[in-house]
Amino acid sequence: MVSLNERTQQSWLPLIVLGVGMSMIIxxxxxxxxxxxAIMADLRLSATDVEWxxxxxxLSFAALLIPLxxxxxxxxxxxMFATGLVVFLAASILAASAGSGALLVAARVAQGVxxxxxxxxxxxxxxxxxxxxxxxIAFAVWGSVIGGMAALGPLLGGWVVTDFGWRWAFWVNxxxxxxxxxxxxxxxxxxxxxxxxxxxxxxxxxxxxxxxxVFGLIEGQTYGWFTPTGEARLLGVAWPLDGVxxxxxxxxxxxxxxxxxxxxxxxxxxxxxxVILDLSLFSIPxxxxxxxxxxxxxxxxxxxxxxxxxxxxxxxxxTAFEAGLVIxxxxxxxxxxxxxxxxxxLAPRVIVRIGxxxxxxxxxxxxxxxxxxxxxxxxxxxxxxxxxxxxxxxxQLPNVMLAGVPPRQSGLASGLQSAVRQLGxxxxxxxLGAVLVTGLDTAMADRLPGDPALGRAVRESAxxxxxxxxxxxxxxxxxxASADATRRVTVxxxxxxxxxxxxxxxLPDTGGRRRExx
Length: 518
Fold this sequence. Notes:
Blueprint: H1 6-9, H2 13-43, H3 47-75, H4 77-96, H5 101-129, H6 132-164, H7 168-171, H8 173-183, H9 200-223, E1 233-234, E2 237-238, H10 247-270, H11 285-315, H12 320-344, H13 348-369, H14 380-403, H15 410-447, H16 452-460, H17 472-503
Antiparallel strand pairs: 1-2
Helix pairs in contact: 2-5, 2-6, 2-8, 3-4, 3-5, 3-9, 3-15, 4-5, 4-8, 5-6, 5-15, 6-12, 6-14, 9-10, 9-15, 11-12, 11-14, 11-15, 11-17, 12-14, 13-14, 13-17, 15-16, 15-17
């Protein structure tokens, strides 16, 4: 049994340490997104090169969530959390000092590795440490941190990059990370006392399968889902096949590796050998149905975060800081939700449903409010509403999902939960990105049928070409087309989130409890 004294269980200090560590990871990712133009100019990178600065981080992060989640169960979750912090901070120093694109990409790989240690361990420790009403509060805080920091990131990024330069997007991690590292002394250690040895085949298959799947999803628009969009280069190496893009091969490799992973893990489990993926977790209803709901929800939740910065900056002419200020109102909603959850006294699954309904309503309301003539604060009340929904749903869905998981398996289950969210995010970016591009194409064809070249430029840039249009009539038409496309994405987002409400109907009533060791 995991040994945790009652005094530690009643303390909120571990939650504060975990929350600040999680905040650092999330803020760093969003700041780097804002810093991309400055990085391109300073290091003289091409658009393809700088895309790998973000993509390689997502790949290394997603690939290691499952094996490192299980490693935390085996060797200690606090130890894994602290190790991840050290790796992330060392990588941040390397990134801040990078003098070339290659060195920056290498640093981002290492940052992804560190983040894949930190993120699942925050959930694993919370799941093993808190019970009852304190568990509901702990997950409410965790969810508020996730949603709030994701919304505040662009605002902080605009300020840091504008006033201090892009390298401070990485230097800023040092003081925060060192404080969190010191705070880990107050986080109790926990592990699976029955953990066995290593599972090398499982680790390799998990890494290959997850990497290939996430690569295919996030790079499909860039390389072409089947037919190449141009010359494909992977980390500087030319793709050898002219008629087919690398994406179908990535998906085929992902399917083969993940099917092999299930077969290998099942065989190893029957033989009594250590496994990296315990398939018995999927026999737990709360974990199985919670995972399905989390996948659907994460697909939808990336809708507004994807399209609003593009619309506000490219079509409405906002600066990165001004756009971040509008989107930061979403963070206000998530923090408000964190304070409301304990006072509602409702079952976690009910809070999840209410949250998803509020998210769907907020997304549709934002879409209806979007127009070329809107004022700077038009979207704020609806973003606050959406943020409250995020604070309800994103916080309590992991609570429900992990409630039936024995504490000894918290690391693996948390890694799987994080992997599901990462996969959902990749699907959301792919699907909603396609909806945005298709919407721009249709709207530009309707509004400027005589200028297909301009329509193509707006579509291929996802609207980023709009500020460069000099003709007033054409510019107005492009802004209106961008509003139409943004509205389409928000409606699809609302529909996906409503589907998530349906998925939660299968969730069992956990009552804020978690399963004890058997």
